[in-house]
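User: quick one, sequence for these tokens?
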């Protein structure tokens, strides 16, 4: 973010020195800038859309790819001719490229910056006959600001929390402690939960489809509570949300949101539905509590960020396999994930491509896949023919949404949070998830913390949850899960506890800070 600000300031200086005093004393006549914007509801909506727009910037080096690669569910993968960066992330080392995590840092701070700009200008807007929109827009912007802060804090640990746009004397602000950051996160999500109405926008026919809701904010409060209290061994969420309040929030979503499980797990994913012969549930299904929405309207325009740019990274390398599209073969699936599923659990074949079992005519050696295990991602696999038929590019115009919080996550969080206070409800929530997975009522297991954590791995494999579910337990649990002494092509994985589970900061940000930000432990 500091790099962006310094470039912007330099551009301003250059522009002013080339202009007369009369010119710079007038407001721009044609450009939209902060001084002549935010006058009416339309301006405010455009500002809010700009914050939402940052959500779509998920691709190579982003949150989902990097955290899954670091976990025990994926190796580095990609191609034998590619750089070693993915392998270094898999081994939790950064030697060649200290900027591997820069997209996470840049995108999240861009989203925070845009949210703060909007929040600081809401009082300037003429709301006309709809003054209630001001509160709604504030709630949505604060939800998104909290989302971006939470992603940063879970990846990098201590960060620079920003509840306002930086002034010149704040460009080198040091990182804050976790309690400061999580207090901001909790207060933002709490404001959203308390000020957004009870509507459920999960259907595309709804005019507000895709916007955040009260239910998403309540679920996110529970998620933040679980991570913070587990990792930092605290009794509450930064003094803002107590355990009892977190239980109330998640139970409200479980019981009153109108969200629910779709009948067949396989129907949640385009490729999973196609390969199993079930009807695709569609992106606007009742299970999606909060999802990042993508579409194929970019029409191969690399300047736009409308499509899912993540999917190409994990899709089949070396040619189009029809149902499973084509891509770069990144983050190959570990045998340990495949073997973690029990017989009869339909989630395994809905989540993972088993090339041999499915009789796929695929030569990984000829395709140049590094660390090929015989298993690949089925979730998020693109269908290239559909993208091409819509005039899109298979790299940037895939349209499958990225679910951040599904209703099954709500149920498993409710199971975890209710273990001590309402064991019967905790058991019911866990049973609902397993009954769908096995198609029967005879696969119940006791609702314990260990069983719930394992169920989370099976339910949310390859969805960006696993790494954080590991490190919030402890470093020994993380190391036991991640370490592997034998990997394809001789590569080994060894988690280093001295990192405390945090990723390396982008080295450029360390340098730009002039010493106010130091590299995370274990990465120097």
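Assistant:
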């Amino acid at each position: 973010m500091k790099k962006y600000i310094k470039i912007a300031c330099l551009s301003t200086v250059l522009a002013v020195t080339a202009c007369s005093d009369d010119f710079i004393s007038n407001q721009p006549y044609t450009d939209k800038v902060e001084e002549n914007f935010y006058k009416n509801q339309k301006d405010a909506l455009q500002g809010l859309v700009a914050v939402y727009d940052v959500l779509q910037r998920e691709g190579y080096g982003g949150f989902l790819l990097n955290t899954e690669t670091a976990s025990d569910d994926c190796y580095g993968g990609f191609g034998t001719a590619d750089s070693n960066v993915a392998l270094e992330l898999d081994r939790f080392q950064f030697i060649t490229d200290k900027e591997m995590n820069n997209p996470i840092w840049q995108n999240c701070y861009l989203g925070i910056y845009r949210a703060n700009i909007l929040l600081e200008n809401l009082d300037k807007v003429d709301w006309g006959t709809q003054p209630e929109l001001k509160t709604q827009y504030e709630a949505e912007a604060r939800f998104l600001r909290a989302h971006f802060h939470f992603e940063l804090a879970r990846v990098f640990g201590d960060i620079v929390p920003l509840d306002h746009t930086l002034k010149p004397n704040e460009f080198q602000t040091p990182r804050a402690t976790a309690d400061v950051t999580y207090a901001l996160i909790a207060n933002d999500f709490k404001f959203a939960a308390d000020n957004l109405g009870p509507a459920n926008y999960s259907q595309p026919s709804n005019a507000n489809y895709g916007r955040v809701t009260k239910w998403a904010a309540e679920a996110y409060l529970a998620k933040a509570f679980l991570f913070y209290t587990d990792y930092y061994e605290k009794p509450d969420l930064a003094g803002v949300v107590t355990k009892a309040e977190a239980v109330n929030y998640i139970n409200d979503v479980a019981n009153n949101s109108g969200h629910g499980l779709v009948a067949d797990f396989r129907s949640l994913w385009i490729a999973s539905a196609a390969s199993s012969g079930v009807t695709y549930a569609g992106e606007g299904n009742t299970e999606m509590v909060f999802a990042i929405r993508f579409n194929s309207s970019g029409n191969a325009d690399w300047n736009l960020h409308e499509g899912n740019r993540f999917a190409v990274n994990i899709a089949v390398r070396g040619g189009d396999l029809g149902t499973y599209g084509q891509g770069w073969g990144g983050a190959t699936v570990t045998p340990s994930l495949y073997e973690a599923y029990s017989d009869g659990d339909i989630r395994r074949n809905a989540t993972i491509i088993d090339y041999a079992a499915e009789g796929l005519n695929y030569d990984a050696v000829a395709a140049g896949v590094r660390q090929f295990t015989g298993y690949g991602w089925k979730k998020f696999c693109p269908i290239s023919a559909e993208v091409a038929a819509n005039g899109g590019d298979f790299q940037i115009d895939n349209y499958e949404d990225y679910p951040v919080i599904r209703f099954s996550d709500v149920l498993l969080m409710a199971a975890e949070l209710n273990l001590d206070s309402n064991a019967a409800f905790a058991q019911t929530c866990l049973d609902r998830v397993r009954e769908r997975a096995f198609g029967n009522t005879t696969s119940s297991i006791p609702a314990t913390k260990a069983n719930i954590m394992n169920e989370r791995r099976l339910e949310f494999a390859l969805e960006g949850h696993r790494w954080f579910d590991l490190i919030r337990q402890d470093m020994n649990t993380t190391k036991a899960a991640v370490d592997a002494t034998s990997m394809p092509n001789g590569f080994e994985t060894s988690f280093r506890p001295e990192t405390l589970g945090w990723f390396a900061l982008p080295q450029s940000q360390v340098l730009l800070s002039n010493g106010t930000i130091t590299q995370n432990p274990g990465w120097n």
